[in-house]
């Protein structure tokens, strides 16, 4: 009987390929068994090796640091080998299985096969990760429980699985001409992966907390200035439960420390460690390492893509990794030498490196062949080179490497102490990310929707102009109500931290008389303002201070940063003990709309000016006190607080760095709306992207216009002017 024509796929069965009506060509059992055996072996062998390494690491009688270090190296290369060799296993087993299944007429898609072939990889990764959690808990005394560790591993594996499933399903659906369903599948995979990753980050408390003021920040920035390095921010990561002490230098003038270093290193030792990270930034090591990895890897990846053999990508990845490790070890020696010159304290660097090894539970020394597999040289070799350059005697080196108690150390930042901060870095990051996502969805969603519903009936230019204008107006609405309302909602939790019968004014504070950006906000601190006839008191999360009327020289309302809707703040100018004029800005933080800030600022300025001049002091509707009084504190200066210049954050360069993201979102919105990506086939991606880009540029236009020269201000404004 001749074979009948295949049944075409229907919209209901969009996840299957065309299915032959007969069952000619059943799956050969040898193909199934051989493919399954190879995949099982590729997944099981690394797990078996991991079990042996786990047993050896926990064997009695071995030094804990050496046992943990051996496990760390073995598990790292098991992970690398598993993930780099898996594409070869898929190529050897997946493609024959896929062809057999398709010929046999089963409703099995390439997406389903890709997901199924990835399951053993993820299970093997899960097993190795669970073994690693057990070793760390038993050898290093981590306080993360087995259940918590399993939950964190499952969240990590789940996020990876979501990306793989979404990508595989999306690619198959798009190739099967179900474009909209494919895009939805891809977006769903990414969204679910982000949700799981966010959940993992919150459960593990791996959040970056900015240290924008204080002795630790001041010392870091002083070392940076001494080295000629412009630093932007210092972050601290809570890692006490995992007992990890480390420091990182990140491109862009950012230094990251773990809280364990603050608790267990002395001032001198931590200064030397920070000098080491500044040296990395001074010599451009983060950028050079990334460039070296890309230079080695990129040409090979292009060549493999050209010959359609990307399954061999693991080999160049490993080679590029070895090159990066080799270069990185030399960078560590160079950074050590530069750190000694910068801080002038080689003994502190020696004792700090030795103490960090003990904190992390690894030995000070290991064989040279192991250096090839590690990012850093052994601590012993680094210390020997530092001591040789500084002419430090061996017996003195031994004394420095001993486990001596720490006499002094830096305080743990407020964000990590006690209940933490209300206006925390985590909350700021969450608000900024959500607002960015909402703005992106609006600027690409509006033109995609208008072109989908009106593109065929109205003129293309008319729809484009309408989309651009509508997107721009919605961006203004978001600016008007978003960030200000988010800060207004923090009043209740902030007041709960300052339990008192009085009702002081809820305000935000920014130091200096220029506009700066603090982690995405114009507000640096939130607090409560109290005015008494004797003084003005501010109690915030970052700072607390008090000023007497005689110290204040001017109170005036100033306009906020240049924008289509201008905000307003109260600028208070005061004089320090040296007679130098300083300034800070206050804003009534209860106001939830930008357009209403000027009226609220004028009312606050009027009350404060009456306090300063003593006019109407008996009628001031202000409380007497709040919490503990502030005696010696003074307002922070702008130099003592980390922040980004407004011109840097809002520059055209910063704006156009976000254009690739806008391109991707525009393409996704275009496909979801059923519009073509090809601009020659009618209104589509180019129109959506153009309208989104135009609306965004129009919203940013006030930041790019040349600023007018500020009007002259008298030192002692009259009360009417301040109002």
Q: Give the class from helix and strand content and strand pairing.
A: alpha+beta
CATH T-level topology of the domain at 209-404: Zincin-like
Percent of residues in beta strands: 5-15%
Strand tally: 13
CATH class identity of the domain at 209-404: Alpha Beta
Label the overall shape.
globular
Annotated CATH architecture of the domain at 209-404: 2-Layer Sandwich
- Biggest sheet layout: 7 strands, antiparallel
Gyration radius (Cα, Å) is 31 Å
Mean pLDDT: 84
Describe the structure.
It is a single chain. With 723 residues, the protein is an alpha+beta fold. Among the domains are: 29-143; 209-404, Metalloproteases ("zincins"), catalytic domain (Zincin-like, 2-Layer Sandwich); 506-627 and 716-722, PH-domain like (Roll). It contains 23 helices and 13 strands. It has helices spanning 29-57, 64-104, 110-140, 146-175, 179-204, 215-227, 259-264, 267-282, 285-306, 314-343, 346-360, 368-371, 379-390, 394-401, 425-454, 460-488, 491-497, 597-613, 646-649, 652-656, 659-672, 685-704, 719-722, and strands at residues 209-210, 233-237, 247-250, 254-258, 505-511, 516-517, 525-531, 536-540, 544-547, 552-559, 568-575, 581-588, 644-645. The strands form three sheets. It has a seven-stranded antiparallel beta sheet with strand order 9-8-7-5-12-11-10. It has a four-stranded mixed beta sheet with strand order 1-2-4-3. Strands 6-13 form a two-stranded antiparallel sheet. A hairpin with a 4-residue loop joins strand 7 and strand 8 (536-540). Helix 6 crosses helix 8 (267-282) and helix 15 packs antiparallel against helix 16 (460-488). It is globular. The model is unreliable at 1-26, 104-108, 616-632 and 709-723 (pLDDT under 50).
């Amino acid at each position: 009987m001749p074979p009948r024509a295949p049944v075409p796929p229907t919209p209901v069965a969009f996840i299957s390929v065309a299915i032959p009506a007969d069952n000619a060509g059943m799956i050969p059992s040898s193909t199934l068994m051989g493919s399954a055996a190879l995949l099982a072996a590729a997944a099981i062998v690394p797990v078996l090796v991991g079990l042996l390494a786990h047993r050896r690491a926990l064997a009695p009688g071995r030094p804990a640091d050496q046992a943990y270090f051996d496990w760390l190296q073995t598990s790292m290369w098991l992970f690398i080998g598993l993930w780099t060799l898996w594409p070869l296993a898929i190529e050897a087993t997946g493609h024959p299985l896929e062809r057999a299944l398709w010929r046999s007429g089963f409703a099995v898609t390439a997406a389903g096969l890709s997901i199924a072939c990835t399951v053993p990889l993820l299970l093997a990764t899960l097993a190795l990760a669970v073994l690693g959690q057990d070793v760390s808990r038993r050898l290093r005394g981590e306080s993360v429980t087995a259940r918590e560790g399993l939950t964190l591993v499952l969240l990590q594996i789940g996020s990876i699985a979501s990306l793989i499933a979404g990508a595989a399903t999306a690619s198959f659906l798009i190739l099967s001409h179900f474009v909209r369903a494919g895009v939805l599948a891809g977006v769903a995979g990414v969204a679910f992966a982000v949700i799981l990753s966010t959940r993992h980050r919150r459960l593990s408390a791996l959040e970056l907390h900015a240290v924008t003021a204080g002795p630790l920040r001041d010392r870091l920035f002083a070392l940076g200035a001494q080295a000629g390095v412009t630093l932007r921010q210092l972050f601290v990561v809570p890692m006490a439960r995992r007992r990890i002490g480390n420091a990182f230098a990140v491109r862009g003038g950012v230094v990251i420390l773990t809280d364990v270093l603050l608790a267990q290193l002395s001032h001198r030792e931590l200064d030397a460690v920070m000098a080491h990270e500044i040296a990395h930034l001074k010599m451009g090591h983060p950028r050079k390492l990334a460039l070296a990895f890309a230079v080695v890897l990129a040409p090979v990846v292009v060549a493999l893509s050209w010959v359609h053999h990307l399954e061999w990508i693991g080999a160049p990845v490993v080679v590029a990794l070895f090159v990066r490790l080799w270069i990185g070890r030399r960078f560590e020696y160079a950074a050590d030498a530069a750190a000694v010159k910068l801080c002038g304290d080689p003994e502190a660097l020696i004792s700090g490196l030795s103490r960090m090894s003990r904190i992390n539970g690894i030995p000070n020394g290991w064989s040279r062949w192991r250096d090839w597999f590690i990012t850093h040289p052994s601590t012993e070799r680094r210390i020997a080179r530092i001591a040789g350059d500084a002419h430090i005697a061996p017996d003195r080196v031994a004394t420095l490497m001993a486990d001596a108690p720490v006499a002094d150390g830096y305080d743990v930042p407020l964000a990590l102490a006690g209940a933490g901060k209300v206006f925390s870095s985590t909350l700021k990051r969450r608000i900024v990310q959500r607002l960015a996502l909402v703005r992106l969805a609006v600027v690409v969603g509006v033109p995609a929707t208008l072109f989908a519903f009106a593109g065929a009936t109205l003129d293309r230019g008319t729809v484009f102009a309408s989309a651009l204008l509508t997107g721009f107006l919605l961006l203004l609405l978001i600016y008007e109500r978003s960030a200000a309302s988010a800060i207004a909602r923090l009043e209740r939790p902030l007041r709960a931290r300052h339990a008192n019968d009085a009702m002081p004014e809820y305000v935000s504070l920014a130091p200096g008389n220029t506009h700066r950006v603090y982690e995405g906000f114009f507000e640096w601190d939130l607090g409560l303002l109290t005015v008494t006839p004797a003084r003005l008191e501010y109690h915030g999360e970052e700072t607390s201070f008090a000023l007497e009327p005689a110290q204040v020289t001017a109170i005036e309302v100033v306009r906020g940063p240049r924008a289509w809707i201008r905000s307003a703040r109260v600028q208070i100018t005061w004089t320090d003990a040296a007679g130098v004029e300083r300034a800070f800005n206050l804003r009534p933080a209860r106001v939830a709309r930008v357009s209403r800030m000027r009226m609220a600022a004028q009312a606050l300025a009027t009350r404060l000016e009456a306090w300063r001049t003593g006019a109407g002091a008996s009628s001031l509707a202000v409380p007497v006190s709040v919490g503990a009084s502030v005696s010696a504190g003074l307002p922070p200066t702008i130099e003592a607080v980390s922040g980004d210049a407004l011109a840097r954050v809002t520059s055209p360069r910063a704006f156009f760095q976000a254009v690739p993201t806008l391109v991707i979102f525009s393409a996704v919105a275009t496909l979801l709306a059923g519009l073509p990506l090809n601009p020659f086939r009618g209104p589509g991606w180019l129109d959506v992207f153009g309208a989104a880009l135009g609306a965004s540029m129009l919203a940013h236009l006030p930041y790019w216009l040349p600023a007018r020269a500020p009007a002259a201000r008298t030192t002692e404004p009259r009360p009417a002017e301040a109002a």
